[in-house]
């Protein structure tokens, strides 16, 4: 550790264990890193940045000047996970997503979990993401979330927790793939010496998953995007290109005689599966927001008749709402008759009077989140907030307690990154991507997000976070570099 010039690490570090020893699965990479010229590594970083700009791997941030695009910071030090540890994480996220899909089917059908008293009815029917139009609608394979992202963290003791579930339109998989491509381009020798599990086949698995949801063979699949001004437009275009399917906007589709068609130069073509990256409210102006220019008039009626598949399903947002998050471990027990492999972060529900009182008394030490919030917006990180920010948030809580949950401020694990001064630890999380079709599958690794600012716990790209490549060692050990 001293030879790398790393500062002292507090908490759990992915690379450095107690007493400054390098963790076994990092030894091969660590030995290689010691032999590298720092100026060469700096040049590699600049090359990566240039290539990402050339490819167009940028994103827009809502609220900033129109047309402003940013490059998501990319760190060339990989996050490495031993194979045996990954297998346990994989089982945990698959178990969780299976339970969530069963939950979504249940609440839109027999509602057994409500009848059993495991979740209060008002938590479902009063939820802004609940869609009554989905009641008794049968979906292929009973799958609501074909594409899920489960955000994982670990604490100072190295224990893994689920921070949140993403079931509506989880993003970031394009960065997972491009990060790997970049690392293989910059450091091909590392992949010849390490048994790193591949991630490049994700688009193939995604297309297979979407095709499996169709009611007949050889379906036509399209990706529906809000357009180029959306913050994740690069990903939409990237995935459509990688899957070999059409990238469409609402104006490219129309409904006729109970089916959805795509306008093409050869005439209308029927569409069977829509991988939509548009929120429920904007999908169909006849059924949801009448002012939406992004959706397809009449789409919901075709969907309810089973003549087109939407991935992910309408109404899926109930499952990843933060007010539902505290109940997911009990869903695993209820639907699968199993104990959860991965635990939740302890959570206070501010709608409960006693829990709200405790949260208000401990605001400076807690993280408070909006139940419908995303992207790091609408949240308070107590230890990093000013007194004025804390008091402002206190008033929000008092005005609308149902809209918030609170959690302890866990000191996320760290992983070394390159900074101007050399190498330093930064906090990270992990988002594995789960594909649910005939089977439930996970590409090894997922997206590691990094809080680039020293001491920051916010990893979201919209809040200045970066990414790094995630290696799962197939044999669970590091080979010698």
Automatic annotation (TrEMBL):
Coiled coil residues, start to end: none
Biased composition range(s): Acidic residues: 472-481
Pfam families reported in the protein's UniProt record: CP_ATPgrasp_2 (PF14403)
Domain annotation Circularly permuted ATP-grasp type: ranges: 78-451
Protein known as: Circularly permuted type 2 ATP-grasp protein
Domain of life: Bacteria
Region (Disordered): 461-481
